[in-house]
Design a protein that fits this description.
By secondary structure, the chain is of the alpha+beta class. The protein contains five helices and eight strands, in the order H-H-E-E-E-E-E-H-H-H-E-E-E. The chain has a single domain, classed as Methylpurine-DNA glycosylase (MPG) (3-methyladenine DNA Glycosylase, Chain A), CATH 3.10.300. Strands 1, 2, 3, 4, 5, 6, 7 and 8 form an eight-stranded antiparallel sheet that branches. A hairpin with a 3-residue loop joins strand 3 and strand 4. The protein starts with 5 loop residues before the first helix and ends with a strand.
Length: about 200
DNA sequence: TTCAGGATGTACT
DNA sequence: GTACATCCTGAAC
């Protein structure tokens, strides 16, 4: 399977967030194992005019530097001191925008993802753990073993260890407000969160 | 089933 | 010092 090309990311961020639903996210571990999951929840962040975006108003700091990279770059940062969030940079280089990957379903090597998350195999999980498997940005990064060490990876390059390839389009797409950005004034109500079954 | 509280480190005021 | 694009636990219902 070939990675989605740079042009997939080089467009309006809200459209990209929608289009990413259903696609396969592949994480290649140092030993060559491929962890595969299907993206089921995304949010758009647009630095140009979105107060919830880290790079709102083109604000450049060491942390936000990755948001100014070319489309198709992974932006991963630490939040609340203990969790990581995975984003895909979008729009032409220099427009600091990205899609936050909020949730996914395990497709291949679920046992390894389960071990990363709970130190147990899939079959040993409680129903509560299965229900809350990769349904949050911090959980997804923990399951796929992603940290700031992977910040800046090129998603269009299979050799980088992280890429996205085509998956089945969702039958239905839901739209709503983004999560956890109550501080962002008018931007907090933007309908820029998308999810599917 | 929902809910409050705590963990934890970096960025920025 | 404060806030943060979060998650887990344990208690109450």
């Amino acid at each position: 399977m070939e990675p989605l090309p740079k042009d997939f990311y080089n467009r309006d961020t809200v459209q990209a967030a929608r289009a990413l639903l259903g696609q396969y996210l592949v994480r290649t571990l140092p030993d060559g194992t491929e962890l595969v999951c299907r993206i089921t929840e995304t949010e758009a962040y647009v630095g140009r005019m979105d107060k919830a975006c880290h790079a709102y108003g083109y604000k450049r700091t060491p942390r936000t530097e990755t948001l100014f990279a070319p489309p198709g770059t992974a932006y991963i940062y630490l939040i609340y001191g203990m969790y990581h969030c995975l984003n895909f940079v979008t729009e032409p280089e220099g427009e600091p925008s990205a899609v936050l990957i909020r949730g996914a379903q395990a497709v291949e090597n679920g046992d390894i993802i389960a071990k990363n998350r709970f130190r147990r195999k899939m079959e040993e999980l409680t129903s509560y753990q299965k229900k809350n498997f990769l349904n949050g940005p911090g959980k997804l990064c923990k399951g796929l073993s992603l940290t700031r060490a992977e910040n800046g990876l090129d998603l269009t390059d299979k050799a980088g260890g992280l890429y996205v390839c085509p998956g089945p389009a969702p039958a239905e797409i839901f739209v709503g407000k983004r999560i956890g950005i109550d501080y962002a004034q008018e931007a907090r109500d933007f309908p820029w969160r998308f999810w599917c079954e």
